[in-house]
Specification:
GO terms for molecular function: ADP binding; ATP binding; phosphoglycerate kinase activity. InterPro entries: Phosphoglycerate_kinase, Phosphoglycerate_kinase_N, Phosphoglycerate_kinase_sf. It catalyses: (2R)-3-phosphoglycerate + ATP = (2R)-3-phospho-glyceroyl phosphate + ADP. Its main location: cytoplasm. Strands 3-4-2-1-5-6 form a six-stranded parallel β-sheet, sandwiched between helices. A six-stranded parallel β-sheet has the order 9-8-7-13-14-15, sandwiched between helices. Helix 13 links the parallel strand 13 and strand 14. The chain has 16 helices and 15 strands. It has two domains: 176 residues, Rossmann fold (3-Layer(aba) Sandwich); 203 residues, 3-Layer(aba) Sandwich (Rossmann fold). By secondary structure, it is α/β, with parallel strands linked by helices. The chain binds adenosine-5'-triphosphate and 3-phosphoglyceric acid.
Amino acid sequence: MPVRTLDDLDVDGAALGVRVDINSPVDADGGLTDDARIRAHRETIAELAERGGRVALLAHQGRPGGDDFARLEAHAERLDELLDAPVSYCDGTFSADARDAVGALDPGEIVVLENTRFYSEEYMEFEPARAAETFLVSRLAPALDAYVSDAFAAAHRSQPSLVGFPERLPAYAGRILERELDVLGSVEDTPEPRVYVVGGAKVPDSIDVAEHALENGLADTVLTTGVVGNVFLLAAGVDIGTASEEFVRDRGYWDEIGRAADLLGRYPDRIDLPVDVAVERDGERVVLSKTDLPPRDGESAMDIGPATVAAYTDYFDAAGTVVLNGPAGVFEHDLFGDGSRDLFTAVADSDAYSIVGGGDTAAAIRKFDVEGFDHVSTGGGAALTILTGGTLPAVDALRR
Ligand SMILES: Nc1ncnc2c1ncn2[C@@H]1O[C@H](COP(=O)(O)OP(=O)(O)OP(=O)(O)O)[C@@H](O)[C@H]1O
Ligand SMILES: O=C(O)[C@H](O)COP(=O)(O)O
């Protein structure tokens, strides 16, 4: 069943609970160090305000016990700067104060309610019917006329604020959610040949993506970079040195080498591996081609080199679509950003339709100011869930 969108919602004067994902990097004082997700939600929030909605934003920040578990006051201030409509902040989520704050909204006004995860039930996963019985949902829903789900990046969670409200209120997908589902949910309709680039450090997830894409004919070719590339090199019997091996072992990914070898055995002509890597030697970046391997003791493969970028660029130039997830190296480190910068630039500059996902991937794109992708997803885990053929509970909840 298709989800209803904002085109189906009678917004004017309605009190709207709008679940967004503005979970952002914050400093020790709760100040924002990146506002990309807040900016991304502007479109939905501005549209609802312009159409006369009374908008109550629901969102989480961090996880209980984590350094980034914080109030949403800074997020509200940032939204107020970014939007033409007035944005206030309420330090309750479903308390009488919060319900009063929603009731007091005039059409076109916005209030950011407090971090949903300040309430223990919100950090649990429930079936929708049970989620609708939680305090957050059962207390706040009566103050609302409708619910809008725009939190694509959290849609792989079945937490109350994501799946409970549609049991009690008419529910609609916001513009971000709508667009993400359109793009990521129809990869099979994009131009061929399709090239998937899997990098970064979440090796099991990336191998899941590669396996799903190869088995289901979604990808013609899978290119590997980052730690994922190192695991595939090990699977192919390439000696990338003890330090690289230790890194893979310490992360608990040693068994993934067997899975990578299995994929290489099944799809030998459809998976490609780095042909050079970069290590740190005497404080400098040193690129080692395959014939220079293994690196010296203590040197770990932290990035791909220019020959790999050149070889992969040939695939991009011939591709109809490129799907990319994960940085090509330790882009946070000055010595190891070149691979990600140059590879991402090659994708963005190619004529291929390009879809990019992942929190760190998006951070690398911003760091290197790479422009020209067709779709940069706001979601990490949620994007991976779709790319591995899984379903999103928060989206399923909208289909009832
Ligand atoms: N060769 C490498 N050695 C060690 N770490 C690496 C290497 N290549 C990439 N990384 C690290 O991988 C991390 C990003 O990987 P991750 O899989 O989390 O990316 P993402 O999918 O974009 O993000 P997320 O899944 O968090 O949304 C970065 O912190 C980067 O430093
Ligand atoms: O940053 C994310 O991936 C989303 O906001 C979901 O956060 P979570 O992984 O803490 O549920």
